[in-house]
């Protein structure tokens, strides 16, 4: 069985409370296994960063408006009972550990232990600058943030001292429902990100060809630290890739990719429609769970 999750209405001008709530509850009623958010802060008019590693590719227009990630997750937790509530992904450099440990533990508590906490290092120099973070440190900060979060979610009293973060001896509560912590998902794809995933995470969340991803994750699992379970792999699929440079998959193409993901033993699938040109109104968002329901009914 390969659960199918959906990225929720979060980006762009066609999102409001009613659309988000109806989408989440419709997805749950239809049997989707997860509801997923992403993180972006603002839309600068002048961008020097290489969007998603592609120099010169324009930042998608959908990023002009983005609901806050952890706040959206809290609403999703309150409105549903069964699906995973996940981040794919939070940008590590935009957070400090005590604040984030509290926010995510709150989501886990409100969802009765359904949180999957996903992270990556991001790509936007402009957004890192807003958080007073040197983007050249983003990999090391991510490593330390994960270590500090695990300390915060461990037994009290908590104490942590690193290069970027220092937590004095203190109680940090609430703790997550699941012990010792929620599953950690990595959206990292670079060689260094792959090594970070092998060392610190429970789930890998790649894009691209499921067959190649299965081959790579099987190799990654041969290098896992002793005592760690094998990495799970949650395949990310787009109805249309960000930037609009590739031909859209559309509904039929994504349904075929879900089948291919199951064929190659993905542990879960996340479908993202945020950048699809078919999303042109609140009603289009509202119809999406029904449009894609064949991928759930095929279980």
From TrEMBL:
Residues 20-230 form the Luciferase-like domain. One of its GO terms (molecular function) is alkanesulfonate monooxygenase activity. Coiled coil: none annotated. Keywords: Flavoprotein, FMN, Monooxygenase, Oxidoreductase. GO terms for biological process: alkanesulfonate catabolic process. The keyword Protease does not apply. This is Luciferase-like domain-containing protein. It comes from Dietzia lutea.
